[in-house]
Amino acid sequence: MGGTDNYDWTEFELSMYYQRSRSEVFRSWATSRGLESFFIARAEHTSPDGEVRDPDEIVQAGDDYRWSYLHDFQHSGRYMAVEPDERLTFTFGPMTVDIGFRDVQAGTEVHLHQTNCAPIDPDRVWQHLNCRGCWIYFMTNLRAVLHSGIDLRDYENPDLNDSVSVGWNRPDRYDAREISRP
User: Fold this and answer.
1) In the predicted model, is pLDDT for residue 176 greater than 70?
2) Nearest-angstrom CA–CA distance, 133 and 147
3) Which of 9, 25, 144, 182 is the most exposed place for a label (fewest CB within 10 A)?
4) Model-level pTM greater than 0.90?
C-alpha cells in the first residue's frame, strides 16, 4: 500500500445519484432558489452588466455570485462555465469547482470535481478534507430535499452545527469564516 506522499491533495472528486430528472437536479445547482433549498441561506447571482438574476433564473458564464450561509459566513466568486443540464464551473476561494450532470438509469448522477486545493499544510487539510466533507454533506442534503422534502441544515443553531466545519471536532478551533486561511 502506498504512503500519503503519493496522494494528490490538490483535487478531489465526488459523485451522488438522484432519482430526479437531470433538468431538475441541474436547476437545484444553477439557480438561487435551488441553491437556497439545500446549500446556501442566501444566494445572489449578478450578470456581467450588474443585473441581479431572478431566483429561478439559471446562472450564466461570467455571472458573479455572493453566497451567505446559515451561520456567519459569506463568500463570493464567479461562474466560469455553464452548459444547461450538463455542467457548471465556478471559482470557490482559490479553488475551482466543476459539476457535471448525466442521466443514469432512473435518475441523474452529479459528479463534483474540486481543483486547485493547496498542496501543503496548513491550507491543504482545510481546502481538501474540509471542503470534501462539506460537499458530501450538501450533496446528501440535496438528496433529502429532492427525495423527501426534508432540509437537514440546522436553522435553530447554525453556529453549533455549521456547514463549513462539518467533520471537525469544534468549529471554534478553526477559522470557519474563510475558505482559505491566511
Assistant:
1) no
2) 21
3) 182
4) no
Question: What angle do the packed helices 131-148 and 22-30 form, to 10 degrees?
Answer: 130
Centroid of chain to Cα 158: 17
Own/partner contacts of 163-166, CB < 8 Å, gap of 24 or more, are 163/69, 163/70, 163/71, 163/134, 163/137, 163/138, 164/69, 164/71, 164/73, 164/130, 164/134, 165/130, 166/130, 166/133, 166/134, 166/137
Contact yes or no for 42/129 (Cβ under 8 A)? no
d(C-alpha 42, C-alpha 2), whole Å: 43
Residue showing cell 440535496: 142
Residue 61 confidence (pLDDT): 98
- Domains, the chain: 12-173 (3.30.530.20)
